[in-house]
Amino acid sequence: MSQALSLPERTTVLIVGAGPVGMAAALSLHHQGIRDFVVVDAILAGENTSRAMVIQAATLEALNNIGCLDGILSIGVKVQEVGLHYGSSYLLTADFSLLEGRTKFPFGLTIPQAKTEAKMLEKLTELGIKVWRPIKVVSVKPSQQAADQDCFDVRFDSGEVLKAKYVVGADGVRSVVREQAGISYKDPHGDDNHDYGNLSQLVLGDVAFTSEPRIFTQGNKLSLTLSAGNMVLLAPFPPAASPDAKRTVYRLATSVPVEFGTAPSEPTIEYLQRLIDRHGPMELSSNPAINPHPTRIDKMYFSSRYKTRSAVAESFFAPRKAGQGGGFTLLVGDAAHCHSPIGGQGMSLGIRDAISLGPVLKAHIDSSAKNSGANPDKMFEEWSATRRDRAFNVVALTKRALGIFTAQGKMWPPFLFLMFSVLRFLGGFKFVKRNVAYRLSGLAEI
Description:
By secondary structure, this protein is of the alpha+beta class. Helix content is 31%, strand content 24%. The protein has 2 domains: 10-76 and 111-190 and 310-403, 3-Layer(bba) Sandwich (FAD/NAD(P)-binding domain), CATH 3.50.50; 197-307, Alpha-Beta Plaits, CATH 3.30.70.2450. It is built from 10 helices and 21 strands.
């Protein structure tokens, strides 16, 4: 449904995008005492096709700090272990319970992004914050009116124009806000071909099996299986967020071998099963010659594909241009950075971007109002540099993982056996399990 009322004519802050990152930005501003802001989104609530599934400990800390965690915790499942396998062989476990003492939330939380968004929207509504939708930004230009030289004129596809001093781009990888600011967006290592072998493409599916995978008989875990340059990730849906209340549903993510060509936009059950049978864990195979207890995908609730790429914006902040006027542009989430979904870092990092922006924006507004003669833009520059460093680190982390995953498909078998034997040995030590969990938790990148 379209909004029945017209947009305001002006605001101090305009947040473009009302996914988890945009809503986190709104909640952070409200938490800082800022009330003069507008939130818009180009699509209706619930139509976001992004399918993040995990919220890391560092992001749970950030959400807790702005009073937006209780509803999310009530739905999600606390996952304390992520198991890594090669074929049917166990390699190591990332044990988040070993982070106790470093965080209030020594676990990863599995919760579908749609439920995260719904709970955040409930919080916004509770606070009286409205999201205007569907309404799409088409241009962000310095105001030509003499009295509004410090503002942007933000034009929408409805024809309406809103004046704003600050525009926060939370509008994804194809960000109009970023494009209008003239900020470049590219791979930080110059790797614009995005060739990651079999991991260049991933397909996702929310599925139920004919029998429960035995890999999860020891509790709620995430399972990642490597095999000849491929990977299969399996995560159970929280019961309170499952698309089917009568059975266990799993989020399945698997790589697509290069020889398969371009994956279909909506993979079928048969396509996903073919991939699982080819390089998935033995417990998911439908082939009785491989699996003594054959299972197969019985029902699919959603499927899509994903092209692996990495990019970071040249800056997360664009100041006013000398002699041109206008306001300030700030980028958060996918508008500022994207990377491989391996490790489940994307949405979590974006939410932390948005929440960290709140106090900085508040300080900038207050400093500008005092007109003290100091350079308030420096705080945005420092915030941008810090968040870009975090993005670079996460890109590097996911690329290292991609490198390891793809390399094992090319290694001489005896060397591969030796490497995994060493990994299994090291994986038995508590400090290794803790360190892997710490890196995945985001606590090292707050």
